[in-house]
Amino acid sequence: MGVGTSWRAFVGFAAFGAFWGVWGASVPRVQDQAGIGDGALGFALLFVGAGALPAMLLTGRALDRWGPGVAGAALAALGGAGVVVAFTAANLAGLCAGLAMVGAASGAADVGINAVAGVAERAAGKAVITRAHGVFSGLVVLASLASGAASPLPLVVPFVAAGGACVAAGTCLWAFPGDFVVRREAVAPLGRQRIVPLLLIGVLGALAFAGENAHQSWSAVFADDELQAGGLGAVAPAVFAGTVAITRFSAGGARAVRGILLAGAAGAAGGALVIAVASTPAVAGAGLATAAAGTAVLFPTLLRLVARNVGDDHRGRATSVVTTVSYLGFLAGPVYVGLWAEAVGLRGAMVAVAALAVVLFALTPLLLRLSGFAGGERCGQARAGVFSSASPGRWSGTKR
């Protein structure tokens, strides 16, 4: 069961990465088609988060009730939403509506494929989640490059290609659920005994994601404005994403959860400080690669911790809680940098990003202990009330 399920998880993450790679490379063309300025574009992008957050909260219960087909439907909807945006983004209103659709489908797909990967890792007894995230990062880079090469073609073409990949991956998850067992009884919300530990893990995820997206969103701006790197600035996000992908593939099997989180936080802090004091693009690139390697392992490791300790009868809801709280950090990261840059400049803002990683380093042992997930030991599982005796790899809607 583990092999087949692992394959489906990788397919889902590959399609998800292909979509967001196309989107990242296509933002300037979408902006031009809509005929809007930078401020209006920033406003429109808020609708991605506005659509994603409620969808992420609702998807967990649907997964626990209907299984991985929910993830498949969300992926297919994401592909369709991208095509809709390419056609309808002729003005600000059309772009906002389309991005709300993209956000809702993306949020649901994000929770769904992470839950599928969690089941696969527990069933297979080997690393799946971190390497699946590596597949995502790798496809983001490849799809971005392919979309750039396809820039002479109509805007809709790369979105149709990504949409086809999403529909194909979604069909795999929907039509071939493998050995997952689905029970269609209604499922209840998680009780306080279960949700509090997951919220604490989500706080760590939010800090990790804030730093990650801060670098992804601002690295090119830093290279251009502070180092006058010219065309090299456009390479910075690709360097970051490529390093993240390589790190996730190479470190995917590491088991010392606390050590990985602490090392990742230390690397993220050190890399941000190197960027802050860099005087050349080469030094800044080294710092960016260090920060990327540090942040790369953080969120997938937290999900692996949850996957090992959460019963399959409420895996969807658990994944939904952790992912939603973490996503708040993803949304806040670029804004956090912008506020600090306005106050003390971009170099000072990079020091503020390093401070986030220092806070993560300091809070990790405490929140792991309070959550009951410290070290991933089952004594912690029992104390946190999040462990279930449900057999590994089984989806069920059993009320608990």
- Give the total of beta strands: 0
* Largest beta-sheet characterization: none
Low-confidence stretches: 376-400
| Overall 3D shape | globular
Estimated structural class: mainly alpha
Through-space gap between termini? 25 Å
| β-sheet strand percentage | under 5%
Task: Please write the string of helix (H) and strand (E) elements.
Answer: HHHHHHHHHHHHH
Q: What share of the residues lie within helices? A: over 70%
Written account of the structure:
The chain is an all-alpha fold and 400 residues long. Helix content is 80%, strand content 0%. The protein has helices at 2-34, 38-66, 69-88, 92-124, 129-149, 156-175, 192-227, 236-250, 257-277, 281-296, 298-309, 315-371, 378-384. Helix 7 (192-227) packs across helix 12 (315-371). Residues 376-400 have low confidence and may be disordered.
Short description:
80% of the residues lie in helices and 0% in strands. It has helices at residues 2-34, 38-66, 69-88, 92-124, 129-149, 156-175, 192-227, 236-250, 257-277, 281-296, 298-309, 315-371, 378-384.
Keywords:
single chain, 400 residues, mainly alpha
What's the topology here?
Elements: H1 2-34, H2 38-66, H3 69-88, H4 92-124, H5 129-149, H6 156-175, H7 192-227, H8 236-250, H9 257-277, H10 281-296, H11 298-309, H12 315-371, H13 378-384
Helix pairs in contact: 1-3, 1-4, 1-5, 1-6, 2-4, 2-12, 3-4, 3-6, 4-11, 4-12, 5-8, 7-8, 7-10, 7-11, 7-12, 8-10, 9-10, 9-11, 9-12, 11-12
